[in-house]
Amino acid sequence: MLSATVRVAGDLDVAEECAQEAYVSALHAWTRDGVPERPGAWLTTAARNQALDRLRREVTLRRKLPLLVEPATVDPHDPADLDWPDAAVPDDRLRLVFTCCHPTLAPEARVALTLRLVCGVPTPDVARAFLVSEPTMAARITRAKKKISEARIPYRVPGRAELPERLDSVLTAVHLLFSTGHTAGEGDALVREELCDRALHLARTLAALLPEQAETRGLLGLLLLTDARRAARTAEQGRLLLLGDQDRTRWDQRAILE
Question: What is the DSSP letter of 234?
Fold first, then answer.
């Protein structure tokens, strides 16, 4: 499988990553549809298709590079920015989130890069969220950072016309950040409070920036209602308590009202 993929990708590292992604695809597809008659051929085809998709994205990127070279500051004459009440968003972290979620990057790369660079989620946790190995995720993040640098993607919040193609990735990154903190994948503590708090901050900022977007308000509501039970989720010995066994007087009423 790897040799067939290398012929398409032309790069061993890329071919190995495509092979890993083919295994992940098989995990989902075979669970749903059953193991195919020729699993080896299925995996090879999936890996080669991943490589072809990457090559197409690279071609698209090279073709669009001149369009991506733009000032890092907001142009007052740009109609995409004129409809903002205040185009200068004070939250640098959110600005970087939008940069990492540039449509030039593959959707998974946007979210992974945001979790690692902006949210400080360790690479093993990011890899666990995407069901890939740590080296695969590290390589993916490195390539995404290099692409941002080479394409000179500006460090700014996009205009309203650019938001639809980025907002889904931003919301996904914030939700995954909260999920990583809400139920830690490793360590003694069930909750990583710093990650939950970071996700809530970003969700609040997004809801304030885009109050007319139902998705931003819905995400904030979901995170607040889930996080309101933080103090009541475990017993004194750290044992996880089911919803019906929790002491509701310990729920955060301010978060619920918000």
Answer: B
Tell me what pLDDT residue 233 has.
83
Give which of 206, 201, 208, 125 is closest to 168, Cα–Cα.
206
Residue 192 has which token pair?
């990583």
Contact 60, 66 (CB under 8 A): no
In a domain, 78, yes or no: no
**Same domain, residue pair 89 and 126:** yes
Tokens 């093993």 map to which residue?
124
Question: pTM of this prediction?
Answer: 0.60
Quick one: 188 and 252 in the same domain? no
Average pLDDT over residues 161-168: 80
79: in domain: no
**Is residue 105 within 8 Å of 147, Cβ to Cβ?**
yes
Query: Residue 171: pLDDT above 90?
Result: yes
The dihedral through the CA atoms of 27, 28, 29, 30 has a sign that is: positive
What does the alpha-carbon distance between residue 130 and residue 199 come to, in Å, rounded to a whole number?
18
Q: Is residue 205 part of a domain?
A: yes
Q: Residue 180, exposed/middle/buried by CB under 10 A (0-12, 13-18, 19+)?
A: buried
Residue 75 lies in a domain: no
